[in-house]
């Protein structure tokens, strides 16, 4: 199955996978997490209707149900917290993140700020073409999902609480 633009990279997946909930067996083996999560990320990024999800993500109802379940039981929030903590522990990034005000800033530690000689130009050139670090991009993706989940919850609460 080819990776589409915007799907999790292998590096992102390796960081996310250890934190994912394990199927309790009640609902059979969960369809490949990665495929479903890519489908959810695709929808959050593009705003496409669930029914409009490309076939490569599997049945849209499966993707929708997983997203609904994980939104309702707090799985997305937990994933974001755990991935942020792990990114922090890895020392890869200094976080400055505010989900609600939609700010996601991450900066690499100034590794060369000590007395190290500057990296050779070859390394510096390569670094410029590097995509953002996997932890950074993964947290940014999860923040997008959590933000949407919170907006949904707020709308739902608003319609329920309209009488107050």
TrEMBL record:
Query: What name goes with this protein?
Result: Insertion element IS402-like domain-containing protein
According to the UniProt record, where is the region Disordered? Answer: 108-135
This chain's source organism reads Streptomyces ruber
Which NCBIfam families does this chain map to?
Answer: transpos_IS5_3
Where would I find the Insertion element IS402-like domain in this sequence? 8-79
